Amino acid sequence: MDDYTHAIKQIDNLIAEEEYGRAVPLLNAILIEDPDYLEALWRLGLCWVELEKPDKAIKALTYYFSFVKDNPRALEAFGCACFKTGELKEAQNYLEKAKLLNPASSSVERNLGVVYNQLGSFEKSYKAMKRSFKLNPLDYRTMYALASAHFYFGNYPKAVELVETMLSMEIPDEFKSMAMVIKRFLDTKMDIEE
Length: 194
Fold this sequence. Notes:
globular
């Protein structure tokens, strides 16, 4: 078996930069040589989730779980893939397992908050979003989710504060557009209440 340490470091850098499409061919090249290389397998599942290919993610991660059951990042990726295929209870189960193994993960908390929201557990969702923000107050995804939760619960000043912070950051255009939509709603809402 080859030593893929350098390639995995390169792949991890691409994942950190959200360059999932560039990471996939590198992961596939490793898996062609060694189909059971677990470090590549779970990362491939993660990339497929982020590239909106949840069925491919589920396939890669299901195979990975036949070897390893307790990788919190793989569990989180599987939970997100289940969420994207509409399997909300499965998503909740996998994300809660990931949280047990990695309680300091802001992304697990955020994703759990999104799932709880979709399941109608709004208080639980709000608490998860707050925990996520406390763990990582600079994550724009968490800011967006928490701003939405603040909006839902009528805490408009906190929602405005988060949205304005997001808009001052270098974030993907998609999130900037969504933040601007919330900001317009909040401005209108706060004008009406004054």
